[in-house]
Write a structure and sequence with these properties.
By secondary structure, this protein is mostly helical. It contains 18 helices and nine strands.
């Protein structure tokens, strides 16, 4: 789901090779530092042609208005957050400080354990900077006053990610001080990461109030947070993006396709990271009713555009209004402007989940993600340079390489992903019932104008990413037999292989939700933010108004 994946070489753990434009054996250093990727299915098909990939990318990102799907838009960026939890390279944790090799060995197995939030923990030097002085709670950041009173004129504690500021070089002042800097690639994923920082801190507060000794407070809080996170993904997030029958089969009968019966640390299949889990790219909207300032009837009135979600981040943008998006030093803001705080009631549907008081105000509605299908919102034809690591390189980037769909398709070719047809055959050989897409279903109405040669290439050797999205679009907007199986089995393995795992704790039941035995993303946000005090939507004129003192000591 992540927008930024600029790694061109993949270490295949089950092959011991570096896979990219040219295969070669991995050096010992690469074996130690690289992600533990694996391949489920070998491809015997010819690499797709430039002409096909360019035609597909063009057709997938042609101008089209936002269309509402059935999933609240917040889950788009929760999905990106999860992607970074699964595929993170811990050599980034220290912000330039070397991580000992033995820690790299421990860190490189993909697991749903929130290492993107916790790093190596508060007692490891490379991660200590992410934690408050108590060595238990995580640092939060402060916004910068940016508008009219009573709220926009305040610098608000706890509503931005912590940033390097004067602690780093001047050109890094706006960068987030978090365990995975990719989680500041756009404002929506940054605010999602912030919610997890706050959630951890609130869990610490609860445990401390219940008498948990300070010596074990961090570990007990982390265990509680990770297990509730895994539960939320299993029962709230996955059912929104994957066919329920596939989820039930995988979580009740076990995996039948990926690392069947495997023990120990998981690997990350490239079929998931380069294709199946890039479903979230189709969910991204161009426009968001973001908050009381940036939305219909807001004090400024403009929608929260996707371009501005990039701009008000420290990795893809520069946190400054009216700035040159591709210039990290443009503008004067080094922290998030207060008027860009997320209104969570416009990104998640609290009302249908038992909290009618948090329904969007009159005249507004919950932003819904675009449907999961082959169409991407057209601003993704031209990504900001910072979103794929090209800002400041001084190199001219060809327009095609700024198209997210093209980048995804080319990466699939670089690692020689199996085609959709090859994945169908492999799953059938594993005893999984699959109904393949027909040639007419693959082509749809969007690609009838292709030459006959390109049509033949597309329907006989369909790029896997395109196949899984087309399958979802034809199956009601949920990942189906191929994409859904890949996603569900990798999630199962990533939970099972985590050091903290609800699958290895059959007695675990969530205790932090509003309803006994249930925990949703709205529950997590309800704990991370004090809704009665107005923290869930602090800019809304109709929301309860917290005192200035409350808002400036929040979180």
């Amino acid at each position: 789901m992540a927008i930024r994946h600029n790694r061109n070489l993949f270490y295949l753990a089950n092959k011991g090779t570096m896979c990219g434009e040219v295969d070669r054996p991995a050096t010992p250093a690469e074996e130690q530092r690289a992600f533990r990727f694996s391949r489920i299915v070998e491809s015997g098909s010819p690499a797709p042609s430039d002409a096909l990939l360019e035609a597909l990318a063009d057709g997938m990102t042609r101008q089209a208005p936002d269309t509402d799907g059935p999933i609240p838009a917040g889950f788009t960026y929760l999905g990106q957050f999860v992607d970074h939890d699964l595929t993170r390279d811990r050599t980034q944790v220290a912000f330039g400080t070397a991580v000992p090799p033995d820690q790299l060995v421990q860190a490189r197995s993909p697991a749903l354990d929130l290492d993107s939030v916790y790093g190596e923990g508060p007692h490891v030097a490379s991660s200590a900077a992410f934690y408050q002085a108590d060595g238990v709670r995580l640092k939060l950041g402060k916004t910068k006053a940016s508008g009219a009173p009573p709220i926009e004129s305040l610098d608000l504690d706890g509503f931005d990610l912590p940033r390097k500021g004067a602690s780093g070089p001047p050109d890094e002042a706006r960068q987030a001080l978090i365990a995975d800097p990719r989680n500041d690639e756009n404002l929506a994923v940054a605010q999602t990461h912030l919610s997890f920082l706050r959630f951890h801190n609130k869990v610490c507060d609860r445990l401390a109030a219940d008498g948990t000794p300070s010596t074990v407070l961090f570990e007990r809080a982390r265990e509680m947070v990770v297990k509730h996170y895994q539960w939320m993904l299993r029962f709230d997030f996955l059912p929104r993006i994957v066919d329920q029958a596939i989820i039930d089969d995988v979580f009740s009968m076990g995996r039948r396709f990926f690392e069947v019966g495997a023990q120990g640390f998981p690997t990350m299949p490239i079929e998931f990271s380069v294709a199946g889990y890039r479903l979230g790219h189709s969910m991204i909207r161009e426009l968001y009713d973001w908050n009381a300032v940036f939305g219909p009837g807001g004090s400024i009135g403009d929608f929260g555009t996707l371009e501005n979600l990039f701009r008000f981040s420290g990795t893809s943008g520069n946190l400054s209004p009216g700035s040159d998006l591709n210039n990290p030093l443009d503008g004067t803001f080094e922290r998030l402007p207060t008027n860009w705080i997320a209104d969570w009631t416009r990104l998640y549907d609290f009302a249908t989940e038992g909290v009618p008081a948090l329904a969007p105000e009159a005249g507004h509605s919950v932003n819904m993600a675009r449907p999961i299908d082959i169409r991407l919102t057209d601003p993704l034809r031209t990504l900001p340079l910072g979103s794929f690591g090209a800002r400041g390189s001084g190199l001219a980037v060809p327009p095609a390489q700024m198209n997210l769909a093209f980048r995804n398709l080319v990466r699939g070719r670089m690692v020689r992903l199996a085609t959709g047809q090859e994945m169908v055959l492999a799953m059938q050989n594993a005893g999984i019932a699959i109904q393949p897409l027909t040639s007419a279903e693959i082509l749809g109405s969007e690609f009838n104008a292709l030459s006959q040669a390109l049509k033949d290439e597309l329907v006989t050797a369909t790029p896997l990413w395109f196949y899984t999205l087309r399958e979802a679009g034809l199956r009601g907007g949920k990942m189906g037999s191929i994409g859904g199986r890949i996603v569900a089995e990798v999630f199962h393995r990533a939970i099972e292989g985590s050091n903290i795992s609800i699958l290895r704790d059959p007695f675990f039941t969530p205790t932090l939700g509003r309803v006994a035995g249930m925990f949703r993303m709205t529950d997590l946000l309800g704990l991370a933010y004090n809704a009665p005090a107005g923290e869930m939507r602090p800019l809304s004129v109709n929301a309860p108004r917290p005192s200035v003192a409350d808002m400036q000591t929040s979180g």
